[in-house]
## 1
Amino acid sequence: MKVEAFLVNSFTADGSGGNPAGVVFNADKLSDAEKLTIAKAVGFSETAFVSDDEEVDFSVSFFTTTEEVDFCGHATLAVFSTLFNQGVIAAGNYTQKPKRVYSE
């Protein structure tokens, strides 16, 4: 399986430092086991997998090297920065579906 993973640093200053995250687009057909394998290969604390969604703009799942996690802030920034830099989206407001919806 050939998958393109973008390696992105969020929270950088002058192009240095920051929190690294992997970003994988077109993850609709990847199983959780495949996502975990890719996250292990990327080796960062989190890798974000972007899928299409009928209800919101994007569905994003987050995997560490050992498991799926509910949410990751720096990886979310990496996703939308990469979407913008790749010309997939323009500046604006977008909705992301989290793994779980919490209610009070």
## 2
Amino acid sequence: MNRERELAKAFVDLADTYAPQFDPLYLFTGLVRGCQALLTVDAAAAMIADARGTSKTMAATDEEAAFVQLMQLQTGRGP
């Protein structure tokens, strides 16, 4: 499959997560897996911040990526 088709499939897969019983964790899991595949990276994770600025890791492709996100949260460093 060429890159354009892979990208289009990733967007369709993400759009398919919007349903009456929407689960944000399913969306974030699909997002990090799609990023890992499309960007040819070893791992990916998604972090969000609430209105108070508190950050939280929503999904990670593996335990190592989740650990890196945790360290970034605890030290106040990172993206």
## 3
Amino acid sequence: MSAFVTALGWLGAVTCLVAYVLVTRGTWAPSSGRYQLANVVSGALMGTVAAASGVWPSFVTNLVWGVVGLHAVVVALRRRARRRAEARDAVVTLPTAAPATLTPAVPVVVDLAA
């Protein structure tokens, strides 16, 4: 196996572990697009190494791992687009005030001599 393929495998393993640590520490949410994208990348890279090595159970596992992550990325992107569209389309309605009725002020006379 070439050194390049081995390096890709290591990059995939590090990506997977870093993403796991960030989710475990609460830095990333498990449903976040970043985490799921890291799963797609790590699954693809480690699956490449497994296929190059002929380790087919690992290849299939990483393939499924990547497909699940890709589905989650698509769901996250759709959710984000929907939220942006809802925010853009939101209409702000201000409460209408009843028309003010003005009553004439009655002049008050103050007797300063008293």
